[in-house]
Hints:
The protein is of the alpha/beta class. The chain has 2 domains: 4-26 and 136-253, GMP Synthetase, Chain A, domain 3, CATH 3.30.300; 33-130, no CATH class. It has helices at residues 7-15, 17-25, 35-55, 62-76, 106-130, 185-190, 193-204, 230-253; strands at 4-6, 33-34, 81-84, 93-95, 137-147, 155-165, 170-177, 210-217, 222-226. Helix 3 (35-55) crosses helix 4 (62-76). The two termini are 33 Å apart.
Amino acid sequence: MIERFSYSSLESFKKCPAQFKFRYIKKIIKSHEGIESFVGKRVHEALEFLYNEKLSGRLTVVDGVIEKYHQNWKHNWHDEIVIVRKELKNQNYSWVGSLAGSWEIAREKKIVKEFFRLGERCIAGYYRKFSPFDQPAIGTEVEFNFALDESNDYIMKGIADRIDSDGDGNFEIHDYKTGKRMMSQLDADKDGQLAIYQIALAKEYENIESVILKWHYLQHNKIITSKRTEGQLNKLIESIKLKIDQIREYIIKGNEFEPKESILCNWCYYWEECPAKSSVNY
């Protein structure tokens, strides 16, 4: 039985129960990684480095942050990074190979360079917007493990990109996004991920006056903000508990975790295992 859930695992069950089963129940680990995800991780690491340096009393120049990005890109590049090629009818993935090796197809080489430069632009734009970084950051990559209620039957985990606090009970929870698509304000006001972190925050700190949720859309250099009422947080808790109960009931009763096909299948690496995709060449 799964003891701890994350918001991403619950979203995985919602989007495709089969993917949830492969990843979180059978724990099938795939070495494949989408180029978009790879870029996002490297940008997150660079901004984490920037704020950790600031927390240590040092302000790193933008060239230093970008150099850190370059180092992490080179260090983490591997042979199973994937570019989704939606224009190909019978092939969904293109394997771009190692950074040290040759990118054999000129188009793939160009795409990889475009993503590499995209990460640089995201970092440089963020640096220009927020320098000298006097935001009251108290932590980066802040890890949470917490119970939704007093029973300890519903344990959640997660990692917040950054948390700020002014010392007077006012907090901000920050999330960095490197994707092109921005959430609407309506979607942000309904989004559960940062709200989950707000619930966790309330269990660690007393006398919280306010919490602001902030999504940084780095490609656009824009911020979407949102707030939650206590009533909204309570409804979120109950909806998560119901979802966890549903998953546990599936497991106990041996219900089938059916695949749910959508465009998201193009970014899923469980085609070998999936009954809806196992017969497709890729």
